[in-house]
Amino acid sequence: MIDMHDLALSMNCFFQRIFKRQAVVLFSIIGMITCLFAEMQNITQKKLLSKEQFDHNTSFVFIGKSSQGTLGLYESMIPLLHSMEDVRGIKIMPENFPKIIIKLDTSAAPGLHPSSNLVDATLEFLRQRGYSKDRVDLLCFNFDELVRSKAYGLQSKNRKYKGHKIQTPVDEGFFTSEWFHDSSMPPQVHDRAKFFLEFPHDLSKRMEEERKSYIPAALLDAQTYWINLAVVMDDTKLGITGAASNMSLDLVSNSKRFRQDSTLGAAAITEILAIPEIWGKRLFSMVDLHRYQFAGGSDFNAEFIDSSPILLVSQNPFSVDSIAWKYIAKSREMRKLSSRSKEEALIFKYAESLNLGRVVEPKVIKSFLANQ
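Predicted structure:
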């Protein structure tokens, strides 16, 4: 029996068993202008990030100014993405990354989710790079809650957004028996009841299924890469839910069993993201702090919504959360709420222990367009 309260031994749970390893707004003129500005920013960053200064384990977070409108977000997003590409030495285009899935954070929908303006700006960026609509899908776990929010103008029967397919768990083949995260963490009562109904006379099958958290098969396709649009919230167990949890706990079939234990929850987040077929397919994570929740746990609570005109972009989802933590902490301090120590947050400790980047204090690069 693994003692998960011992940090050293708790890292033993960071090994997964995977049985198959393969893993409309027109902005033409504005796009050219912002791309020109972005190139100016890139030249500055090239001087800043010489080969002698660059550490491949350093995590970078690019900060720009948020906006309530699609156009403003697009203008702010372009230099951030150009700078990120320059640091990583990549170019996001179909020849390099043929298929893209945008994971929408709907864990707190309909109250809190990525804005439609942020989605539209991201889709416009990809369109300008040559991506046709059939090459870019959205992935959403709580589609009906997103419909209820009315922000996207979606209807239950039409699982498309502006011509882009929305993948959901009700789709045939969304989960397959070959891709799952295996954990010894016991299931929640409702999960155990579901497995009993499915396999009433097969105890060994029930016990086998209780350990598995299935991962969307589309994300493990060799030609598919992901973009992560998340929202951040204070969390009493994990410290923060945001970009990292959106691509881990909010990605699997029965994530509720991890959320009530700070140690096992943090371990599951890091373990899932560390799967090579997931970690190696990340393009970037982005958070718009125009709306975030600074207290109230992991459930939406309008009483604790705050706003900062900040847009965060990074290839590393843990780094995005690390910077977002500071804004949550500031909101809590202003309202005289108890402070939480980021240095003690297990999701960041575990991420660094697994060599997923230096994320407690990532390197911050501000865009010249940001009004800080």
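Summary: The radius of gyration is 20 Å.
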